[in-house]
Every structure is written in structure tokens, then in C-alpha cells.
Design goal:
mainly beta, 97 strands
Length: 1315
Amino acid sequence: MILPAIVILAVSSALVSKNISPELRSAVFQIDSSTVVPNTGIFISQGYQARPNERGSVLLQAGENLTNFEGIFLTFMVDPAKAEILKVNRAAALQNFEMSVHYPVPGVVNVALAGNPRSINHGVSLLEFELDLASHPANTVNDDISLQILGAHYIVDNAKMTQSHDGNIEIVTDNNAAELQFVTFISDISPGIFPLVRNDTLVIRGKGFSSGSTVLVNNRPINVISTSPTEIIAQIPEQTLSGSYTVSVGSLYADEKIAVFENPGASAPVDILEELMFLSPNPMRYSSSERPTTVDLWIPIFNPLGAGEPIVGSVDFTSIGGSPNIGFGKTDINMTDADCRADSACIGELAVGPGGVSIVWFKVTGNLSNSLQTNTDYPVTIRVENRAGKRDQEVETLELRTIVVQGETPSIGDIETTPLVPAPGDNVSFYIDITDNEGVDSMQSVQARLTSIGGGIEELSPAVSLPSGGAALTTVPYVLNNFTLSNQIADGIYEIEFIARDNDGNQTQTGYNLSVSSTGGDGDGVVSGNAPIFSGRLETFPEIVPLGGKTTFYVGVSDLDGSDTISQVAIDLVNVGGDVIELESMIDPVAGSVQPVTYKGEYDMPHDLAPGIYSLRLQAFDSSGNSAVETLPVTVSAVVHSGGLPVIVTKSAVPNKLPANEESEIFFNIEVEDADGIEDIEVVRLNLIPLDLPYEFMSHKSSSSTKEGTKGIFTSKKIKIPTTVKSAGYDIGVQIEDKQGNLVNDRIRVTIGDLGGDAPEFLNNRFVPDVVSPGSDTQLFVEIGDENGVGDDKLTVMADFTDIRLEFEELDSVINYPSDAVARQNTFKSKKITIPEDLQTGVYNIKLTAVDDTGNTVHGGARLRVEKGGADDGVAPSIRVYNSFQVPRVFANDGEGKGEIHVLVSDADDDVMTVMANMGSIGRAGGSSKKGANDIELLCGSSMAIACMERSVPEDIGYRWFVLTDISIPPTTLASTEPYIIDLTAIDEKGHTSHESIPIYIGDEGVSDKLRIAPELVMIVPVDEDEFELVVSNPINTSSIERGGDQFTIRPTLDAFNDTELDRVSWDTTSRILYLESDPLIGGETYTFSVVSDGNPLTDIYGNRFSADRGGSLVFTAYERGRAVPNIKNVNVIDSEHIDVIFENQVIPSSVHPDVIVARAQLESLVSGASNRIIKSQLQSDARTLRLTLDRLREGDNMRIKIPGVMAPGRIKAPGGAAEFNFIVSFPRFNDNENGCLVLPIADLNRDGRVNFSDFALLSSVYGTEYRLEDVSLLCPDASAISAPDDGGNQSPFTGPGIGSNNNGMGGELPSFNF
């Protein structure tokens, strides 16, 4: 799911500030929901509301759909007396764009972004501007702060656009918001993307910098000249090579990059910035059916004479069939863009992009021939010269491909077979769920590779007939029916590979282990002995294979029954245009040996193969019929990389043996040599998947590089091994990739399991004293126990003091035991250490490491508090995330304050005043501190996003609960099965703080807590004699569904002993409509449909069970042949935004699927011809009443509703293929003379209770309209229907079930579908 901007910002802020004293963070300012949103250009909302002294953000958003958005330049301005611009952030949609910012004067920031084209939808955020508002009286109630967008121009579909809409912040009170401390952040780098030179200075501006801040350029520390809380000045080293670099302060990365050049002044060479230059699109789809005619080249140029100075260049497109000399540039200092386009030497156009005083961008379009070779790379040459005669030349490569992956990749879900364990000769059916978020109509094929069981590549087809509008559905079950196994197939486990491919060329594949047993479904599919194991070598040579090149496969296989029992190893080359070939063993295995044997095979890659990474399927068989399957990836490239290959000199794991206890830690080191320079290494990856962990990236230790710059050490962070990892030896893959794309792979051996002897244990770690002031002394004492002995010769203890700006230190034992003594406990101590005078106050955790002589390694820590005065002032609190919970389990986004969050806090002093929750824009909450009026209470009331929890009951010694009540979630917060994140801050009376984040779950408006506790069957509608559609209240957990229907029963209502079997169950993308097939039922008979309570439980997505005695049973009438046409009987107007469409008969739920209704149903005025948008639809429990949510209706209007594709049981459609009905809009109201009943006078326009000429005179739109007496109806509401007017005479919104006739009460209304 896509979280609201505030959640993303809160989470990212939490990540950035992990190594910094946590502070409260700002959120997006509150927005008045009634503010009109522009529908053109770009905009900042006019509806922001804030307090004086409040810190928050405003968003720059798309006012319309921006197709092929490529870049933007604008100036954002506010009154500096009213607000300070703190920072500019890219929104998620533009995270891959290069950005440059510049603050020329207070209150003004220039922003430029450029990147590969992408489409931006209306309302999507582009930029975020963080502001710090001035306090009262600079900002007073009803004041407006204008948010101005100046000089905006942006590229959409190759056209420049300039339309923008300014924003506004309204001050809503004179009360100042509480003063928040700044989280450290970087707002600006100067010169930024402007050219720097060696030995030049770099200025970093922001907030919260500490005096010991470290500045890194591409993760290499550089010299810091001066530091203040808001500015750091550093120096670019003399040996820095020309290029583009990232900048960070500690672990905090800047959004901007810097560009470094060799020489200053006008004598510097003109430079084409190849790091930033790009072709668009690239790679480009090029095939016999699709031959693009043009390509755009974006060229950034550094001109030492200045960006406004004349410069000329040319592009050679001859390799792709274009002109050899397309000119670009400015021949005159005063030349405008229009002049440039008119000049024959200046065909290119000045383009939007990150720029500065010496950088200018050009955009040049080249023509493509229609006879080029696909899957080939073509060079494009760029030349440039300035008026000082300085020149540069670069080459950019255009990649033409048959397939260019774009859009989202489909995914494969549950896979099942019938029967589960087939016997030789059986017919097997395969069922597989395919999901494509771009719609199932984008699927090109779903295939099963059955070569392992004697078949070929078979196509699967959708298991159900999709309803109209299926393009909006995202998950569909596919089926391959009745594949016949050979009678000669041996018992064993066989892998079946499934491949799903969409129309964009995106492809995903997965394997499924099919067990074959001679005993059929009663067998376990297991044969005698052990299956082969893929171990040892598993690689190709070369690692990157050129088109038409030869590759060699090396595959290691072993078997616990003896490697000599391996009968065959084969590789399937169908993915790369080949066949299945058998590999040959390189040596003869020794009888009884379990050591792996390497098998080898060779293959010539086709010349016309599309470049990419292919997965090749390996299968090994032994003499007992056991088999094993593995996948071998191979990379095929159209380019043969040049440059020297990196070499791994040394590699190590520290320690190389440890237990899987989630406590012990390991890290990896490798020393790498690269003849092209250690800076040529692009990335170093660790494959930790064998240890149940993701990939890890290793970082370069800059201080480790040799003088020649060709060697360096890369190290990983410390890693804890999960308890799920089994004791064994593991080969951890390490991969090095350099900037030319060369790959080098190796492995590091790690042993997981019990180690030699007992590991040491930290018993008591403490500083004396443990609370000190800057400049004072302290000493560390560490008490350790080890059953193997704790003497100096057996144990090494290290302390890492780098967090307090001191060095590593090996601790000394207090008692020197004789070597033959077996002491099991000892104390180690550090030397006296002096705290630096300028060390920032706070709590520091000093890392400890103990290693014994058998390799056991454990880690610990000792806490040291540094503060002014140094007095011991108690213990900091700790938030217990895993003990915290919400009530109810899922909050409804209905705006009602019914939710609660309960948080457990550990605090020995029991002096926590409150726990503050930053709700952001997720919702609002009540609650406040009960410790008396203080600064904390003032802070709790200072922001609409921050709420304070109440102290509650204690839990055991040292623990107390805190509760946040009256939580309300607005409808603007989207429902999701994924959690939202709330930031918590616990504060005690002495100022100690603790920060954690907890997840909360938010569901749809209208889905009550009762439904979440007991999901129900809402309705069942027969499609014909043997097919039905079942609608349920909550989305079903599809992994809990048995496709064979064993979780349901159908029996005649008057005969409890005769069940009708269900044959098949499938479902739609909402998991709320199930498609059922059974044996034929007797038409017109009454049946009871129920959930079976025993066996495999059927659950909803929240884990709640469906139960027959709690809404899990329905009575229905079987389909009886006839002509029950789905005509519309009536339309009831509920209010200005809701109508009920009532059909004469039940309708099939999938034919009025919400996606279908919203996309295809039509509602239009017969007077003005204007269309009214249908926003949402709900089929009520009677299966006859369809409730529609609309744009606002006008009373008195004559409307026509038309619903195409609606079907009644028997799949009978309305005449002409659509159901139609005309009606007059009139809103309901209560009539005291009718005992509180609801009056629906269709034509009573003046609301006098009579239909007469005065109504006809009221609106000309109703002249000539005929009315029926039955158009006036009386309805008496009950408690579940419609509420009476409130005391103010206002009509309360309608919230109950449909008021159409024949409401059969089968489980209440169907909740809103949420796609």
C-alpha cells in the first residue's frame, strides 16, 4: 500500500535519526478538507491551517495527470518574517530524479529536478517544503501566509508547461505551538551540483549539527574546517578525481550531489557531465512490430566561463541512422530559447535540469532508422566547445531491445493439485493464483513446464469466466486440467515450474514440488533413501556471457547415500533457446563417499537472444528415484565489458563459527584489489539468504586503501543469526561489481551451531561513576563468567569507545590467575578515561566484545550518561513495543472516536509523566497527562498531530500501562491490511526520553467491530442449477480456502441428512465474492448453505473464523428456469449523494461488481444532458437493491440511470443489454403528521406536502413531466434504518441498509468494496 505522506515522513525521519538523540518530529500541516483542489498545472493547497511557532510541511502536488514528466524548475517563496524554509524534500514519485536546491536569500529557494520520464497522476505529491513558522505576534489569528510559486516551468510529453497555483497557510489561533528541538537534517549543499575543484570548500547548511560531525564524500571522510549547529565547512581533498559524488554527515545523506573538476577559472576544460547525461527512453523497445522514430538526448555541460556564456556542440547520430552533425548550443550570450531553436547552429533546446552558475542542460532529438538490429547497443557521440576553445567529447550508448520490462511484474500465489498425491497413470489438475496489479487483461500467458514428469510446456487458462470489466480485476485462478501421468513414472518428488508473463514482457516464475506415489492419495510421496543435494560449485563461466558466446556450467551434487548413487544431472536450456541436456561428471565418485561431485556442460548462446538474466532449471536423480531441483542464473549481455576484473585478496567471517541465538554477532571482511582503482568498485553484496536474512551491502573502509589506490577493505555491519537457522556449515556468497559491470563471485564459509565449550557471559557491566559531566573522568568495569576459564590467556575483552570520540581499548583483568587455574569468573577494567569537553550530553551505549580461546564470541554493552553537573538522576524509561496493543484490533476510518491504544512502559523509577503519540495525518485522539500542569501538558496541546497518553494501572514491579483514548480515524486515511506506523515518545520527570514506533491497523468505514469478530455470509445468489455466487462480509484469507469445497455444505432445508457436494470454489480479487460449483439442485426447492465448523477452518484476512452458528448459514431458493429479467423496478433517492436502484428480481453479484458499475454505469440528466459521476456501489443483502454513491444531485432534476451488463439468475440480461430507469430527484424528509414516517414525495418541490401547480412553477425543468401516484411513498424507519432529524432540524445522514422493498435480512448490507 501507499502510505499517506505523513506516515512516510515520520518513518523516514525515524530511520535518519537513529544515531542522533531522538526528538519530536514535524508533520504536514493540517488541511481544511473543504478546500477546492485545482485541476490544472501544479499547486500548493490553499487550505493549510497552523498555529504560530508550529513546524510542519506543505506539499507541491500535480493538479492534473502529467504524462511523461521529465523535469521541473521553480522558485518557492514565503515571507521570511512569518516563516523560515528549513528543507526541500523529493516526494516518493520523484525519488529517482536528480535534485538541486539553492537558497539565495531568506524566504526563497530555487529547486530543479530532472530524470527519466514518468507519469504522475492528479493529486500526487512532487515536493515537500518544510517550514518553521514565526511565533506570535509575527503570526496572529486569521493571518495568511502566502506560499508563492514563481517562474515554474516543467516538461510534460516533450512540451514545456508553466501553469501553477499558489498556496496559503491560515493562522487559526494566537496560542504558540510548543518549541520542538530540531532533528539533525541537511537543507542545502553549496555549491551543490555546481562545479567544485580540488582543495575547494564545501558548505553544508542545516540544523542540529554537533561539533564532532563527520563529513563523507562517497562514504570517504574529508577534512572539516569548521562546525556550527547550522553550518559545516569542509574541504574537497586534492586527490579527489573528477566526477559526481554523494555527500553525507555521518549516516545522514544529502539529497543533492556534488560535481568535482580538476582546474579552476576560465582555463578549465569544458566538460560534458557523463554521470548525469542520459538518453530517453533507454533501453528502448525496438522490434519488427514496433519501430520508434526518435530518441531524446539530455546533455549537461560545465562551462568554466559560466552557464550564460556562448557554447556550441554537435551530436553524431549516424550509428542509428540519423544525422552526423546535429548542432546545439548558444552562439550569443543574449540568445533565448526561441533564438536557439531558430538558429541553424543551435537545433538543441535549453532544457530543465539541475543547474548552477556554470552548468547548462541541452535537449537534442535524433532520428532512428527503421532497419536497425534489435538487442544491439549503438554509440552516440557528443562534442562541445566554448569560445575559449576548450573542447570535450563523450559517448552515450542507446540500447535497443526486443523486450523492455516496464510496469509491474505479475506474481504467483497459491498452487494446488487434484489429487494432492497422484499415482502413476493418474490425471492431475493444477490450480494456480496469478496476480497482476495492472489488471488481469495484461497477462499474456501462464505456462507450466512439465518436462520433469514427461510432458512439455503447457498453457493454463482462467479457471472461471470473468465478469464484464475484468480488466480491473487483479487476481485470477488459472487451471490446467487432466494432465495424464505416465504409467512408467517412478515414485518421487518432481518440481513443476510455473511461468507467468504479461504484455510488457514482465515475467515471474516459481517451482512446485509434486509428489508421485504408487499408493496415490494415501501415500506420502516419499521414496526410499535420501534425495541428491546441490552443493559445492554452482556457477557459469564466464559469469557474463556475450550473445553468440560459449558458456560452461559447473554444478556440484552430493548424496548422503553416497555420491556414486547419483544417476543423472540435467540442465534445462529452454529459456535460452536450447533443449534439456545431460551434464557429465568431471571425476568418478568414490563408492560410499558423500563429497560433492562436479558436473560440467557447455552451450553456445544464440545471437538473437534478448539480453537479460535467465534462470536455468537443474535436476539431479539418484538410483532410487529420488530427485532434487535447483536454479542456476546466467547473465547474457550485448556488451562485452572491458577493464580489469576485481580480485578478492583475502576474505573472512569474524567469528567464523557461532550459535543461532539472535544474540551472538558476526561480521564479514574482504580485501579487494582492482587494477582500475578501488574507486572502480561499484558495490559489494553479501547473500545472507541461507541464514534466513536478506542481501547485505558491504561498505568500504576508506582508511584501508593502499597508497596506489588499487586495494581496499570492505566490511559488513554486525549481523545476528536467527534461531530458525539449523546447525550446519553455510557458504555465504559475496559478489563484487565494478563500474564496467564486471562481476566476481566468491564464498565465505560460516559454521552455525554449538561451539567448542561454553561461551563467555557478561554478568555485570558498569561505569564508575556512570553519570559524568564533560571533561570529567570515569572507568569501565566488566564482570564476565566462562565455564572454560577467564584468565588473560583464555579471554579477550574489547570496549568500543568511538561513540564518545575515544578509541577501541582492550580491557585488563583485575585478577591474574595462574595458567593452570580454572577460575570461572573475573572482572576486566579499562584505563581511566576522560570525557571530551565538547561531547554532547546524552546516554551512550558502549559496545563490548568478548572472545574466548575456542572462538566463542559474545557482545554486550555498558551505559554511560553524560550531562551537565553529572548527578545521578534516575533511570530512563523503555517502551515495550511487543506488549502494546490496540482496541479494537482494527480501527474503522469512519471519523468516530472509539479506538484505544495501550502501551506498556518499563521504568524502575515509575516517574513517567506521559507517552506522546505522533498521529500525523492518520487521525486524532483524546487523552492527556495526569501529572499536573507542566511543559509537557503544554506540548501535548500545541499540535493537532500530537496526543498524550494517560497513566493507567501498574503491571508487576517497574512496569505501567499508558492508554490513548477516543482515537478517531477520518475517511481520508485509506483502509489497508498493511499497518500504519505511530511514533511514541515516553518522557519522565527528570527529562529522560524513550522512542519507539508501533503498528496500528485501519479498516473500512462501515466494517464494524462486530463484523471483525464474527465474519458472516451476506447473500448467496444462484447463477444456474449448479453454479452460485456467495458474498461474505469480510475479505476471506484465500490461503484458508479448500478449492474442492469441503468447507461448505448445501442441504435441503427440510431434509437434514442429504448433502449436495460442492465441486469447486474460486474467488474474485476482493476475496468477498466466491464462485461455487456443485451437483445440480432441484429448481424452486429451498436449501440451507452453511460453513463447516470442523476440519480446516475458513478465516477472514484478520484471522477470524467463519462459523455456522455465527452468521455462517443462509437459506436460499435454487434456480428455477424462467425468464426473470433484471429490469429496474424503482429508484429511491436517499439524499443528495445516495440512491437505491431496486431491481424486480435478484441480480448476480459479479454482474454489478463495484468496478463494473463505476466504470460502465451511466447517470445523466434528461434536462441538461450532463453526466453525474458514480463514485461507489454496494449490493444490499436482498441481492435486489443496489446502493450508489454519486456526485451531488440537484433536486427536481429528471434523471436516467443505465446499467449495462447486469444479469439475473440464469445469466439473463436486460433487454438491449442494459437496465434503464427514469426518475425525478427529490430528497426525503420526516412528516410529523405521519407519526415520524419518512415521506418521499417525488414531485413535491416546495416541500408543502402537496403536488400541485406551484411545484411545476418552481423549476422549468419539470414542465411536461408525467407523475404517478405510486411515486409518493411512506416509510416508517426502525432503529436500523434511518435516523430522525437532530434537534436543529437537520436531517441526519443515512447509514442503514437499503430501503428498497423485499429486504430479506440475509446478513445485513454488503460492506464497501475496497480495491
